């Protein structure tokens, strides 16, 4: 009986060890997820207030903001390398390496903005060259004249946020983002419409509000890191002028594929909107609503994947492949469970969700409602595989493995996802449902391959 009893105790210890990974994953990941949702609130505020200026102003702001977002996505992807490299340094108990990583992340934010600003200075000319209406291009250029300066604090936020994620201080990221929401609402109201004696600056005022919002959020995070006793000793701004080219290029080598991956994924969703536009205005409107709903729920996997990125990186820094595996698989199970719950809601009550975005007294809304609910039925599956792919991808990033996942992403998003969307949507005649099915297929491909690669991490020697 003794061997049986010992086996049972061993099994209980293993189960307890796995359960012990659930709480830190949730405590780190959920505040980050809520911070992502709060960030969406900032963008939503801009759209709602600019929309009151008129259709032309709103359209121009979308053009400028999409260009800004493209630049921000790529820069954010590069700087996101601070998380795995910082976590690995913490796992090695190398405080100096962690400080150097964050410092060089801030350097990259500054240096990246220099060529990025060279592009944004010519926003009007670029949009006209892309065939946009000259009037809208001029309005967009005026908006970008202010908005472009928010790029530096926005990228600085990502570098400091990476440090705080590694240190398990996700709550302050949420609080700082919520403070940014409040600042943005107030400044938008004052500067767009010229209330309480402020000048009416319209789109330019919205851009100024974005600059101050990012600067305030960045300032709060920096202040926190300099005041908290456990963080102050890392002195991430200490000798900020000092170069450290080996770490600088290490971040670039790891982060560049991440930036390309984000662009590839963002480009796929932009292309899906173009395909949907070929079907007509009503399908495009339904697509926009469905995508907005799916984007909100997707913030949960985003937060959990950042937690996985940090925790897998920390275990990799210690050389503990079993701990890295537990951190990654626990994040995957939690994420898929969350997304399965959201999928049930999408299947059971799609009409209630879509109705929040429509005026049901308008007869034209009926067709939009019908199409959007059919898209959400596919989005239910789409959400599960999308959650799996972002966890799988960030688990590999935590190990410092970014090049092969980039190849998976390009093949999955474009060779498979876009081709399926085109084939099913138009060749098979499935319409919008076919386009969404293609997206799901591409994401499923990436999710399967990244998680298989993470499973084979020992054989592939991804942890040294």
UniProtKB/TrEMBL annotation:
InterPro entries tied to this protein: MATE_fam (IPR002528), MATE_MdtK (IPR050222), MdtK-like (IPR048279)
What compartments host this protein?
Answer: Cell inner membrane
What main location does UniProt list? membrane
Kindly provide the name given to this protein in its UniProt entry.
Multidrug-efflux transporter
* Recorded superkingdom: Bacteria
What organism does this protein naturally occur in? Answer: Roseibium algae
- Taxon lineage: Bacteria, Pseudomonadati, Pseudomonadota, Alphaproteobacteria, Hyphomicrobiales
Alphabetical keyword list: Antiport, Cell membrane, Ion transport, Membrane, Transmembrane, Transmembrane helix, Transport
Q: Where are the transmembrane segments?
A: 62-83, 104-123, 135-160, 172-192, 204-224, 245-264, 284-309, 329-348, 368-385, 406-427, 433-455
Q: Kindly give the CDD domains that the UniProt entry links to this protein.
A: MATE_NorM_like (cd13131)
Q: Which residues form the signal peptide?
A: none
Instruction: Please report the record's description of how this protein sits within the membrane.
Output: Multi-pass membrane protein
């Amino acid at each position: 009986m003794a061997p049986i009893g010992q086996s049972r105790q061993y099994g209980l210890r293993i189960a307890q060890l796995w359960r012990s990974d659930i709480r830190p994953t949730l405590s780190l990941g959920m505040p980050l997820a809520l911070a992502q949702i709060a960030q969406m609130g900032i963008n939503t505020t801009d759209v709602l207030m600019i929309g009151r200026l008129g259709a032309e102003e709103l359209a121009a702001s979308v053009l400028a903001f999409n260009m800004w977002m493209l630049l921000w996505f790529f820069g954010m992807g590069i700087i996101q390398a601070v998380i795995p490299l910082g976590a690995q340094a913490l796992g090695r108990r190398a405080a100096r390496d962690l400080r150097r990583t964050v410092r060089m992340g801030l350097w990259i934010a500054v240096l990246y903005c220099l060529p990025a600003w060279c592009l944004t200075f010519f926003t009007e000319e670029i949009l006209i060259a892309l065939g946009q209406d000259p009037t809208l291009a001029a309005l967009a250029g005026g908006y970008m004249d202010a908005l472009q300066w928010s790029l530096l604090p926005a990228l600085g936020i990502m570098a400091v946020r990476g440090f705080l994620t590694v240190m398990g201080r996700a709550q302050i990221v949420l609080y700082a983002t919520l403070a940014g929401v409040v600042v943005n609402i107030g400044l938008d109201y004052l500067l767009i419409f010229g209330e309480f004696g402020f000048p009416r600056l319209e789109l330019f005022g919205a851009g100024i509000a974005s600059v101050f919002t990012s600067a305030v959020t960045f300032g709060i995070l920096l202040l926190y890191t300099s005041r908290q006793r456990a963080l102050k000793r890392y002195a991430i701004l200490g000798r900020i002028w000092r170069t450290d080219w080996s770490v600088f290029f290490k971040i670039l080598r790891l982060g560049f594929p991440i930036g390309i991956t984000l662009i590839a994924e963002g480009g796929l969703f932009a292309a899906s909107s173009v395909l949907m536009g070929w079907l007509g205005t009503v399908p495009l409107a339904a697509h926009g609503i469905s995508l907005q709903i799916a984007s909100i729920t997707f913030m949960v996997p985003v937060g959990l994947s950042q937690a996985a990125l940090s925790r897998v990186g920390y275990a990799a820094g210690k050389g503990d492949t079993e701990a890295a595996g537990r951190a990654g698989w626990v994040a995957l199970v939690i994420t898929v469970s969350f997304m399965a719950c959201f999928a049930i809601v999408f299947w059971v009550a799609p009409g209630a969700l879509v109705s929040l975005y429509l005026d049901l007294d308008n007869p034209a809304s009926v067709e939009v409602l019908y199409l959007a609910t059919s898209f959400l039925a596919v989005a239910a599956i789409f959400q599960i595989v999308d959650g799996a792919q972002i966890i799988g991808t960030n688990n590999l990033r935590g190990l410092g493995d970014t090049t092969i996942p980039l190849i998976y992403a390009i093949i999955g998003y474009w060779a498979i996802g876009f081709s399926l969307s085109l084939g099913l949507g138009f060749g098979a005649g499935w319409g919008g449902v076919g386009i969404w099915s293609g997206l799901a297929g591409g994401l499923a491909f990436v999710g399967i391959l990244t998680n298989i690669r993470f499973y084979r991490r020992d054989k592939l020697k991804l942890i040294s």
